[in-house]
Amino acid sequence: MDLADEDFLDETLVIGEGPEQENTSAKWSRAPPPPLNPKVDTLAFQQIEIDHYIGKSLPGMPGSKVGPVPIMRMFGVTEQGNSVCCYIHGFCPYLFVSAPSNFTNDHCRLFKEALNQAVKKDMKSNPDNIQDAILAVELVHKQSMYGYGGNDKLPFLKITVAVPKLIAPCKRLLEQDTVYTAFNYQYRAFESNIDFDIRFMVDTSVVGCSWIELPPGSWKLRGQHGHMLELTTRCQLEVDVAWDAFIAHTPEGEWSKIAPFRILSFDIECAGREGIFPEAKHDPVIQIANMVIRQGESEPFLRNIFTLDTCAPIVGSQVLSFEKESLMLEKWADFVRQLDPDIFTGYNINNFDFPYLINRAQHLNVRNFNFLGRIKNIKSVIKDHVLQSKQLGRRENKSINFEGRVPFDLLLVLVRDYKLRSYTLNAVSYHFLQEQKEDVQHKDITGLQNGNAQTRRRLAVYCLKDAYLPLRLLDKLMCIIIYMEMARVTGVSISSLLTRGQQIKVVSQLLRKTREKDYLMPVHQGHGTDEQFEGATVIEPKRGYYNDPIATLDFSSLYPSIIMAHNLCYTTLLTIAKKKELNIQEDQITTTPSRSFFIKNTIRKGILPEILENLLAARKKAKAELKQETDPLKQKVLDGRQYALKVSANSVYGFTGAQMGKLPCLEISASVTAYGRTMIEQTKQEVEDHFRIENGYKNDAIVIYGDTDSVMVKFGVKDIEDAMKLGKEAADYVTSKFIKPIKLEFEKVYFPYLLINKKRYAGLYFTKPDKYDKMDCKGLETVRRDNCPLVANMMNTCLQILLIERNPHAAVDYAKQIISDLLCNRIDLSQLVITKELTKTDYAAKQAHVELAAKMKKRDAGNAPKLGDRVAYVFTSAAKGTPAYQKAEDPVYALQNSIPIDTNYYLENQLAKPLVRIFEPILGDKAESLLLKGDHTRTRCIATSQVGALAAFTRKKETCLGCKAVLPPDREDKAVCKHCESQEAELFHNELQAQHKLEEKFSRLWAECQRCQGSLHQEVICSNRDCPIFYMRVKSRLDMDAKIKRIKRFGALEW
Amino acid sequence: MEIDDSSEYDRKIVSFKDLGRFKLTERRYNDDSLNIYTARLNDLREDTLRRAKLKWTDYQHVEVSRLTLETLGKSYILIGVLYKDQRLKPSLLRDLSKELQLEAQPNNNYASVDDQLFLEDETLRVKLVGNHMDIQEVVTGLVCAILGHELENGTFWVEDWCFPGYYPKSSSVSSSLVEDGKILLISGLDLVNNTDEFSLDLLSEWITGMAGCANAQKEEAAIAKVIIAGNSIRSSTKIYSHKGYHEIKSHDQLKIKEDVMAMHKLDAFLSNILNCCCVVLMPGEFDPTCNYSMPQQPFHPCTLQKSVRFKSMHGATNPWIANIGGRVVVGSCGGPIMDIMKIAGLSQLSPLEWLERTLIWRHYAPTGPDTLPIYPFFKNDPFVINEWPDIYFAGNMDEYNTKLVTADEGHAVRLICIPKFSETKTAVLVNLQDLTTQPISFGDRLM
């Protein structure tokens, strides 16, 4: 569910005088456009961004001729890759208000004049010199979309105003004051809260990222053919057109193609001071790496890097070195302007790279840096932007205006669309590409910068990689395509998808439908209520380990199909009063399980069901086309589309439940969930009643669990194929009991199936009888963020043994071994590391990672984690009663000083619960004592710390390598004590064996890091604490040294 | 058996000097700069460039990083280390992430058609493209000169290439000093798994002169050195999966017991031979020695308590270089060749051909440390070929194979693949004087 966002961006613009566009490098700038004659040529382009400004009206165009008028601006790219800015004239903002029933056309003129007076009086100043605030008042007959009120249309006034910002005062004056005295009437505003850009797109049937065609004769090209209007943008083509003269193509068939947008990915490096996160006021930007790719191509066509101070050349990339930082920044801004990218991307560019560059440039007084957008004279300015959404929580972001270009920050996209353990670029790269990323510490960056041209090149190569990685991720995750398709499906621009919540998507779709059907959308006064409605239901799970095939029946698109089946909509909602008034028969009404009334679709079909039908039909079509398509690029687009359609269909339900939203309707959302609940119950009933021995089936079926939109059925058969057959039969049987288009589908069989609790289960997932598709785990600790990797790995392996090998005993044994390994210190440290981001230093409750950061700062300020860094820590043992937060220690420090790990903490606080949870269904109540208290927990090894209060008083004595007895002084240089001498050979081989393993590991670790850093010759400087290899490297080196010393005790190697 | 009492043969004695190049005096693991590649490149750059300039006269040599400053499309000579990017190469990271995979498959081929080739010098790496170079016949870690030109997308189009070539012959070495005598090469005794005592006894009797007729004894007496080239204890290890610590542990314990037993067996076998003949014992990849990574250090004396008392016993490194009777003998227990064959898994070349190539590549173990474990050398690369071997062998091969290679200056080198004794019951006899070889089998069947 989602949201309640809405925020109106501060629309003040900072105007300056931007530099003229000059193109110094043919490699950077776009190829010149072909000669065009508006009289005979057609111009088609894919728009990516739509905005408007207030300007002067253009002669020959529709709309107001006097005073300031709003002019729409579309930015886009032609199929040849030329950038276009299209000015669209004559579209005016408007709102509706309800009108008294005896209002006639004759009243319109007087009403208009009165309102005009009132609005002008209301304006404190009139900087734009608006002469006519109200352009027109028109009497129309429409219906409110909220609630069924018969088929009679009611009078409304459509009030057209000069500029968008006059809509709000109009509404206020009409609703609160008496403007027009002829009627004593309480006016109610409709559709006054619609963004002007959305309004425009709805009225002209333009959807996001669609193709726009300007037919010959309808448009004018600026700067040519006598049309000498000023060029105000950095686009190659600037054209003017009337709002009703262009063709907006629906993105289908040929027009679903995607133009070769230029995507610039960049990354900056700053030279921070020791121990302080870089600040724009003090720390210079030292490198900016840029990668530019055309949408649809697989390799960047331009790679370059701007460096402060000299930098040795790099094959395949242009190196631009500057002596002065301010010149570098100036030239970079110049590069961006010449490149004219459509999309900016990178990792965390919105909240770090861009603000840092802009602030730094301001601090250094760099000339013309801020002009990064497409409008020549508008500066890019940082604004704080708070997005409040139920889905994402409160997020403070920075927003920066780049008129005509879309900032597409990969980090924000990932945070929005994916649930991950960690969002560092390292973690993300490992998660999606299975590659670790070299990570260089701030301290080392400064060191490399202060070296020579070679070390700076080392840094540059690293920086270039960081600029390239977002492009690879964008490609792999199809982000751009999915967002474009989402924009097309929902009809909003791509940037509003990124900066706004879910609401706007549904509003845009609703408006398109209401316009068609003469409905008006009321203005909802957002106020939160505490009214809660019951959520989805779960059938109490019959917990256990099922060594039988369990068929899973799913309702496909449950909530959308409920809305469609029962015709739930704003327009069909019926109040009891209206029901009486209109004298509607019972058989024309659906009464929902939550006691709301809706008109049946025989009387009136709702618009929500219609929207959903269109979305689902479109999805079906996209999926069918996807199967046919052979071109991989078009396949991607179609796949992106079907995904966007699915998400959009599901967001409709959320929209009706969002109480702070534009138009919540609890009757709808409560009915939907109520239906969902009863349907799950009913399915259980139907299945258990029908599939019985009496009805000729081999066994009685039992529903063992049911959740939101699925039920798990045990048919009692032992064969997967039989279970699948029965599953299909059951799905069809139950589907026939429900109203169309509700459909129960048989999707998969779990065999075996481990049902742990509500929303927690695991099973082998079969869609065809011969081979399983995957192991499916829901709600288990395999993905939780605040666990150490050991937990996830152990759980995974246990489940594998349980489910794939079907050997519960082996799984228990394995778990015991891991516990024993843990207690005997045989677990690799990287498996025990927990990482957390240091977001602020003063938490109310003491937190382990915060305490540790403070401790590390005392030790070595240069290496201590800073705000925004991720702190990695392990729990080390301490005196009894020490609170957990004081036990956190830097893993590297713990390794180097052999500080013992608090294995008990890991056992009790990390491993115990998840383990008991998965084994309880198998072992019953004994699980806990069997796993956590058995024989295997009796042997423990505790390392002795080399630091700490007592360490100073201890003297290390050599012990026998065989029996660990302390060696007497005369044997201290020997390996074993007298009693163990007979076994010396064996003990020696034991050591050799261990050493072989260590050595192999050591060399593999280094080889791995060399491969990862992409260089054999350069030393490994990576300190990526998200990477297990980093700790292994530190440990392996210590282990090697220790092992060699032990082996030396067996005597010198001399022949 | 007929024994002619009257004839008596003296055991040949030849001069012997272990050149000790691969001996590690001190082992340290705490240096960050693992820079064996830089050392390798520095050692071989000059010679490679000299040969390259002879091959392509009119081209200029540039550093990889200077390439972008030069004219695009013009051909230049680059010198660097080759790096082969292979998806199938074992990766620790990948192993970690799929810990779940319950069984680890031993992988004998790292090559696939998707492999990419790079050239790298101290400064930078560039991707090599073009079909001129057969990517399947080169491996990671080779020093190489490439003639070609940069393409617009930053890759380098290969027109021709050139390796360092044979070690230039120095005039001071003359063959007149070569002594008369033979050496016997054995490898892969595999005492843990080899239950066939008979052939081993036969071997020992033959060496010591207890078997064969007078002629045979005469031949036997000419054996001045027995070189045991690795894997005397075992010649393979089973790969165990991650699952079950106790299983691995008990397996380890068993392995150690076996090792200790086999060491005793080896000790007995050696001390028997040592009575009358000199033995050089090299450790192998799977032998329990003081280290696993190349160069492997000799067996620890304390593990061979009987043999260690003989002066005729010599513990050697793997690989190993010595001067025996005026001949430079170099060899390894076969690990580097096996690793090369994994990297070039799609190539059809025989081990002997790879052995020959290492001479041209001028490196005994080029794939280390990338896929072949190598001790972290910081300042030098001891595996660079700095001499002209007369006898160059690789142990533990599947079959016996040999070839006499004659280099540009007329200098000859005898290449030998020593077969695994445990499987072929075959040893190889080499005549120091004329470099002829002869396989000798000790099977219980007539072959």
Features:
heterodimer, A: 1055 residues, alpha+beta, OB fold (Dihydrolipoamide Acetyltransferase, E2P), Nucleotidyltransferase, domain 5, Palm domain of DNA polymerase, 6 domains, eight-stranded antiparallel beta sheet, seven-stranded mixed beta sheet, 26 helices, disordered N terminus, B: 447 residues, alpha/beta, Purple Acid Phosphatase, chain A, domain 2, 2 domains, six-stranded mixed beta sheet, 8 helices, 17 strands, globular, 4Fe-4S (chain A), DNA replication (chain A), DNA_pol_type-B (chain A)
Please explain how this structure is put together:
The complex is a heterodimer of chains A (1055) and B (447). Chain A is an alpha+beta fold. Chain A has 6 domains: 40-259, OB fold (Dihydrolipoamide Acetyltransferase, E2P), CATH 2.40.50.730; 262-477, Ribonuclease H-like superfamily/Ribonuclease H (Nucleotidyltransferase, domain 5, 2-Layer Sandwich); 478-522 and 606-658, Palm domain of DNA polymerase (Alpha-Beta Complex), CATH 3.90.1600.10; 524-555 and 666-778, Palm domain of DNA polymerase (Alpha-Beta Complex), CATH 3.90.1600.10; 780-937, B family DNA polymerase, thumb domain (Topoisomerase I, Chain A, domain 4), CATH 1.10.132; 958-1050, no CATH class. Chain A contains 26 helices and 34 strands. In chain A, helix 3 crosses helix 12 (503-517), helix 20 (808-823) runs antiparallel to helix 23 and helix 23 (903-923) packs antiparallel against helix 24. The longest helix of chain A has 30 residues, at 984-1013. Chain A is globular, with a radius of gyration of 34 Å. Chain B folds into 2 domains: 16-26 and 171-441, 4-Layer Sandwich (Purple Acid Phosphatase, chain A, domain 2); 36-97 and 105-162, OB fold (Dihydrolipoamide Acetyltransferase, E2P). Chain B has helices spanning 36-55, 92-97, 197-208, 214-221, 245-274, 335-343, 351-361, 421-424; strands at 16-18, 75-85, 116-120, 125-129, 143-150, 156-162, 182-186, 223-229, 278-282, 313-315, 320-324, 327-332, 391-397, 401-406, 412-419, 426-431, 437-441. In chain B, a hairpin with a 2-residue loop joins strand 11 and strand 12. Chain B starts with 15 loop residues before the first strand and ends in a 6-residue tail after the last strand. At the A-B interface, helix 9, helix 19, helix 20, helix 25 and helix 26 of A face helix 1, strand 2, helix 2, helix 5 and strand 10 of B.
